[in-house]
Amino acid sequence: MLKPREAVRSLKSYHPPLGNRQGLRLDFNENTLGCSPRVMQKLRELDFEQLARYPDREPLEAKVASHLGIRPEELLLTNGTDEAIHLVCETFLEPGDEAIIVVPTFAMYEIYAAATGAKVIAVPAGEEFRFPLDNVLAHVNTHTRLVAIANPNNPTGTLASRKDLLTIAEHAPNAALLIDEAYFEFCGETLIPEFRKFPNLFVSRTFSKAYGLAGLRIGVLAGHPEQIHFVRPVSSPYNVNSVALACLPDALADQAYIRQYVDEVRCGRDRLERELQEWGVRYWPSHANFVLMYFGSQAKSFISTMRERGILVRDRSGDRGCAGCVRITLGSETQTNQMLAALREAFEEIGIGQKVGG
Asked: Which pLDDT score is estimated for 262?
């Protein structure tokens, strides 16, 4: 009887709670307004011939490299950040190797690393989800071949310092250090192009969040050219589809749209955090487009009450150290107004906290 590899048989599965998602979708960290109008216009202009041809990503890699201020040979376009993670794991991990992740974090680091047969070492975040540099360094050994870190982290929104991350790169020269900057636009801090000093460093980016292109699946893996040279053949030559490649130049060109959206999200993030503080609700200051908050035993009631008001929020109780936690994505100013109005009603109905002066 045909059997899959042992690593695959014991692999965890990632099951996003898609299902019925009617309402304002503040549960998946997506761009809540969608992509630039310029991208929509490009979609309308696509013809049959463009869809019939195999995609050619290299010309677009030069455009993206220019946008990032690096050279084309220092990056690879990928099928979203997920493929970037997958490619690093497939390129550098073998059975018996060790991969370090800091939990709670994005589930796919563990899944892709474990699929290679490597042992995944889950290092818990520090108090208040602070980055546990000393504990990470303590777990680095001769078997360590990957350290994967989301920065800012999902679902906590916390940020590891540049100094801490480069310390890991220096301390673990034989391990690939993957820094996932999916939420870069909302914090502005990056390790590009530090990989010129640290050849074991990789940085991934995505056009799914601020750019609103999650459905087109396009991302970036950047790194030292000698290392990208080894990653490239592991990737399919047609990994990024023609529609995504056709739309990407217009998405990059409309930076005014991105800045406007990011500004509204960051303003909404500040407003939500102030609101939570006024109600006495525990939360963790965020550097991303979402905020994680703690409701304890009232978490599920809060989620269902918000849904009744047309607002979808995400239960993160299944993440390590996040029991009773809920994550809310921020969107436009209008959407933030709608969300905050529903949140206040939900707090009063359930009896969560008590607003200062209320």
From this structure: 98
Q: pLDDT at position 123, please?
A: 98
C-alpha dist (Å) from residue 335 to 24, 255, 329, 351: 8, 21, 10, 24
Contact 201, 177 (CB under 8 A): yes
Q: What digits encode the pLDDT tens for the residues 136-158?
A: 999 999 999 999 999 999 999 99
Q: Letter for the amino acid at 331?
A: G
Residue 22: the pLDDT is 81
Assess contact for 254 and 260: CB atoms under 8 A.
Answer: no
Give the pLDDT score at 284: 98
Q: How many CB atoms lie within 10 A of CB 212?
A: 21
Contact 288, 29 (CB under 8 A): yes
Separation CA 265–CA 329 (nearest Å): 9
Which residues does the chain have with pLDDT short of 70?
A: 17-21, 356-358
Q: At what angle do helices 58-68 and 242-253 cross, to 10 degrees?
A: 30
Neighbour count for residue 266 (Cβ, 10 Å): 19
Helix boundaries (H) for the chain: 6-9, 37-45, 48-52, 58-68, 80-92, 108-115, 133-139, 162-171, 225-231, 242-253, 255-279, 299-308, 333-350
Tokens matching residue 226: 């000698």
The per-residue pLDDT for 317 is 96
Q: Within 10 A of 183 (CB to CB), how many other CB atoms are there?
A: 24
Left, alpha or beta for 308 (phi > 0: left; psi -120 to 50: alpha)?
alpha
* 231: nearest Cα among 199, 189, 193, 191: 199
Instruction: List domains and CATH numbers for the chain.
Output: 6-30+256-346 (3.90.1150.10), 37-253 (3.40.640.10)
Q: What is the pLDDT of residue 263?
A: 98
pLDDT of residue 18: 62
Q: Name 283's bridge partners.
A: 293
